[in-house]
Structures are given as structure tokens and as C-alpha cells.
Amino acid sequence: MAVQTDRIPARRRRLGDRLAVLGEREFRWFFIGCTTSLIGSSMAPVAVAFAVLDDGGGGTEVGWVMAARILPVVLALLAGGLIADRLGSRRAMLGSELLRGVVQALFAALLAAGHAPVWAMVALVAVWGIGEGLFMPAFGAVVPDLVRRKELTGDANTLLGLSRSVSTVVGPTAAGLVTAAWGPAAVLLVDAVTYGVGAFALAVLRLPVRPAAGEDSMIKDLREGWSEFAARPWLWITTVQMGLFNLLVWAPFLVLGPLTAQRDLGGARAWGLVMGAYGAGAVFGGLLMLGRAPARPLAVASVAALGWALPSGVLAAGVGLPWVAAGALVGGVGSAVCGTLYSTTTQKWVPVELLGRVTAFGVLGAFALGPLGLAAAGPLAGRFGTGTVLLFGAVWQLVAGVVVLAVPAVRNRRWEEGPDS
């Protein structure tokens, strides 16, 4: 049976009511550990990008290292969904936190010793990506188990989205400052410690034990998850949209952004400020969503997704740092609104025993083309120009958002509808 997350309209709810989910022990521990871990995770990409640039690499090398992180994420997602549904989300996330902590500690040691060629960075971020691939489906599936009062599930998603948003403010900004002062190794060491805090928080959780799915074959389990995913047009349509977004918009922004920042905006500090502004927008977007459930959640999410066009658009325009940061701020608002509504919608209308696998298919679709975008961004910019690649992504995001919003299965989906597609 699907998780129900209908909530009281925001105008009737006080702030204390909206934060009531923090009174639940399991969610509170998870929230603390998750926030700490996410701050470290959001610091690491800045450090990795500038580790490559400091070693003499350019946009192509940054793209390859970033792709080496995302490709294993994609490959590990389905395994992560199976593990979450078979062994439990907490175990899957705990193993992931420990694995990523060890990897980042090794990465920091190599950088500090001055023995980190590009191939070694690629190998380390690949293992890091495997850990992330195991984590993501479990993260999407664990929320219903963290709250006893199911009407608080939406608020739980909003607060977790806020923690992610806060991390994208604190993490990149701190990473830019620390990288400039002490180098990338210090940032990765901090990241390793935060994974340890996240693992401890997971270890103390007391979650309900769900029946194992172990009698059926893995292939049958995957087919069952795929059937649930494919039966919901609103789910696979928005997943396709996110997959093309990561290919054409976000991947070029992540690769060409640091390169442009180093060349034109002031280096690591400037890029940290841009990503911090993106996170600040996400915090604001999360606060807007706290305690709110729009009548047509996917329509609102699709409109909010249009804001992702601005970070690439202003960077393509060649304007100054304040304008780039402002564009990132608006993009961050859209990201928080989309993330909260997509997560809560999926948890509301997908059976809880299938959430790990359905989430895995959703994340797989969203990220599958990302490595290609990361690897191709540098060479395409060399051929057509950085501004052209970024501008194409911005225009694509606007067009795609309008097209998805025109689809009735997305535009007309309402909170009060039943669990069927």
C-alpha cells in the first residue's frame, strides 16, 4: 500500500507544527547525520575540480574525472535499489557512508603526499561513485520508516531537502576558502570525517524490520520494480526530463563553470561563491515548501524547473560574478521545489516495499546520460565555444520545461488522487 502524505494546508499550520517531525527520534538522528554528511559531500567536488586544475589539467580532464564519479553511480543504482529493498535502507546507507569515508581519506592522503596523477583521481572518484550509487535509492526509500505519523512524511522530505540545500551553501563556500588556503587535500579530509558522523547516526537508528524479498530472484525483483516505474507516466516522463537536463544543462555547467571561474571570475573562491549562492536559493526554496502541498505538485515542480536555465544562461552571457551568483540563486530555488515535490510524490503513490527499486530506476534515468555530458563538455566547448555550449543548455531547459508542463499526466496530477497512475 502506498504511503499517504496528505497534509493540512499551509495557511492553517504554525511553524511549530511544520517542524513537529524533528520530535521523532529516528528522523532527528537521521537528519543530523545526513546534514553533516551532505556538507562534506558538497565540499568535495570543488576540491576535486581544483585538484585537477592545479595539476595542470583543463576542462577535458575535469570532465573525465567528474564522469568517472557519475558513471559508477549509474552502474550501482539498481544494485543499490535491490539491496535497500532486500536488506534494508539503513544497512545500504551505512555501508555506503563507510566506503566513501575511506575513499576520501585515501584521496586526501595522496594529494597531501603529492602523488595524485589523473588516473589515480579517476580510480578514487569511481569508488566514491559506487558508494553514492548504493546510497541514493536507499535514501529515497528510508523516509517512510523514519516517521511514525505518516502525515509528516512531506515535512520530512522538505527538511531533508533543506539540509541538502544548506549543505550546498556551506559546502562549496567553505571548500573554496579551504582550498585556497590549505589545498584540496584538507577539504577531502574533512569530507571523510563527515561520512564518519553520518555512519554513526545511521548505526543508532531503530527502524522497523520489513520482510525480506529474498525468495525471489534478483531479475524478478528488478522486473517488478520496472513495472511499477513504467506504469506511471508522470514518473517516467519527469525522469526523462531530468536525464536530458543532466546531459545538456547541468553537466556542462559543472565542467565549464570552474574553468570559467578560474579564467574570468577569480578562481576557487569565486566558484565557491557561485555554488554557495545556488545553495542559498535552495534553502529559500525549501523554506517556501515547508508545510505546503500544492494542489498540482508536478505542475509546480515543472514551472520551478525552468529556473535551472538561469545559471548556465548568465554564465554564457559573460557577465560579472554578481550576476552569475544571482542566476545560481534562482536555479537553487527551483532545485529545492522540484526535489521536494518529486520525492514526496513518489513516496505518496509508490508502494513502500518497492520504493528502493522504483527510486533506483528514477535516479538511473536521471543520471544515466550525465557521464556523457561531463566527458563531452570540454571537447564541445573547445570546438564551439564555452558560451555556445552553456547557452544551448539554458535554451533547452526552457523548451523542455514547457513541453513537460503540457503533458496532462504531469500537469493534472493532484494530491487527492489515488495511488494509481
What does this structure look like?
By secondary structure, this protein is mainly alpha-helical. It has a single domain, classed as Growth Hormone, Chain: A, CATH 1.20.1250.20. It contains 17 helices and no strands. The protein has helices at 15-18, 25-54, 59-87, 89-113, 118-146, 153-182, 184-203, 218-230, 233-265, 268-289, 297-305, 309-316, 321-349, 355-367, 370-384, 386-405, 408-411. α9 packs across α14 (355-367). The two termini are 14 Å apart. The relative contact order is 0.17. Mean pLDDT is 80; it is low at 1-13.
Features:
disordered N terminus; globular; mainly alpha; 17 helices; 421 residues; Growth Hormone, Chain: A
What is the fold's blueprint, element by element?
Elements: H1 15-18, H2 25-54, H3 59-87, H4 89-113, H5 118-146, H6 153-182, H7 184-203, H8 218-230, H9 233-265, H10 268-289, H11 297-305, H12 309-316, H13 321-349, H14 355-367, H15 370-384, H16 386-405, H17 408-411
Helix pairs in contact: 2-3, 2-5, 2-6, 2-7, 3-4, 3-5, 3-9, 3-14, 3-15, 4-5, 4-7, 5-14, 6-7, 6-10, 6-13, 8-14, 9-12, 9-14, 9-15, 9-16, 10-13, 11-13, 11-16, 12-13, 12-16, 15-16
Structure in a nutshell:
The protein is mainly α and 421 residues long. It has 17 helices and no strands.
CATH fourth-tier homologous superfamily: MFS general substrate transporter like domains
Radius of gyration: 20 Å
Helices and strands: which structural class?
mainly alpha
Please state roughly what percent of the residues sit in beta strands, choosing from under 5%, 5-15%, 15-25%, 25-35%, 35-45% or over 45%. under 5%
Judging from the principal axes of the Cα atoms, what is the shape? globular
CATH topology call: Growth Hormone, Chain: A
First and last CA, distance: 14 Å
String of helices and strands: HHHHHHHHHHHHHHHHH
How many strand units? 0
Average pLDDT level:
80
Please name the CATH architecture.
Up-down Bundle
Describe the biggest sheet? none
Number of continuous helical runs: 17
Percentage of helical residues? over 70%
Which ranges are low-confidence, i.e. pLDDT below 50, for 5 or more consecutive residues? Answer: 1-13
